[in-house]
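Margin note: ligand = arginine.
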Amino acid sequence: MNERAVLAYSGGLDTSVAIPYLAETTGAEVIAVAVDVGQGGEDMEAIRKRALACGAVEAELVDARDEFAAVYCLPAVRANALYMDRYPLVSALSRPLIVKHLVAAAAKHGGTIVSHGCTGKGNDQVRFEVGIGSLAPHLKVIAPARDYAWTRDRAIEYAEAKNLPIDVSHRSPYSIDQNLFGRAVETGFLEDIWNGPIEDIYAYTADPASPRDPDEVVITFDQGVPVAIDGETVTPLQAIAELNRRAGAQGVGRIDMVEDRLVGIKSREVYEAPGAIALITAHQELENVTVERDVARFKRSVDQRWGELVYDGLWFSPLKRALDAFLDETQRHVSGEIRMTLHAGRAVVTGRAVVTGRRSEESLYNFDLATYDEGDRFDQSLARGFVELWGLPSRLAAQRDVVK
Ligand code: ARG
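Resulting structure:
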């Protein structure tokens, strides 16, 4: 029987090209897995059909929206998780969930290879591979974009040569990752960190500066979990979706930042996460009311460490698990209601003064390392070994815990 490769499939150019390319280079049959984490956009059935048209032997759709909300996003709310005091971990939260479903699909279909479309410059390669190393250390990982040094132009050429059913004519100048918890936009003109964002790049939030009436909302929490909005019972998925809508309409949750990636690059990213910011703001305030002083003081450092672990791809690590037990204990009394006004970008902790450009003689932001365009000087071939070592403690712990 042929070897089988399970691919995290988004329906876009890079992962579509990966299907025939993986098959050619490894001789494996490719199984595409598309996970719905509330990214919206294209119809999931169309994505499934495209995977098959690109040569996948099977294509699976997983509707993981409720699971994502309850098991990944709400723990982040519980930890008030804001990496570098701002970023609510949107992409970082979805990766371990996708990993879980990839590993399940590999088990179901007899896969021995897992594959993802990440480059060697970002955090997501680490999150995928360290996650896989923790849950299923026997699986081999191939990341075509990184391991075979694919470029965008080469991917387009290959897609055209193979006649793949992908529309490459109007590709966005940005790299976008979006899900239920928010949206991340980078590259293009944003790589010049003096350039302010333009209204065009936003999709989850209205312009905070347009005149409109404020919106008042009451969120009910039960032990740290949002359970009702304005008195109506909601599921975790409904709570986040509803607050995305209402806070988004008020321009809440826009974040423009230069962030420290795990791989050492400083990168510029613009986020919008209206529901996440509204929920974390409300949750934090309810903790101020209900959590005892010393627990609250200690929890702040746990919150920060928790966010860094998740950002750094260590969702399945022993330390993250131990901190979860602590966080769980702290939520016993975090029940009650918070009334919040959403207006003109407020409800955001940092939303009152908005930075739109930055420059400094002392800057560590290095355009040549950060850019995805011509002139990239980052050596992606270093990433594979780095990721391997970064995940070593998690992998050792996972092996021991599987054996016992
Ligand atoms: N920088 C964010 C993170 O590491 C988002 C990564 C994906 N962003 C993107 N625009 N494709 O979590």
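Residues 348-354 have pLDDT under 50 and may be disordered.
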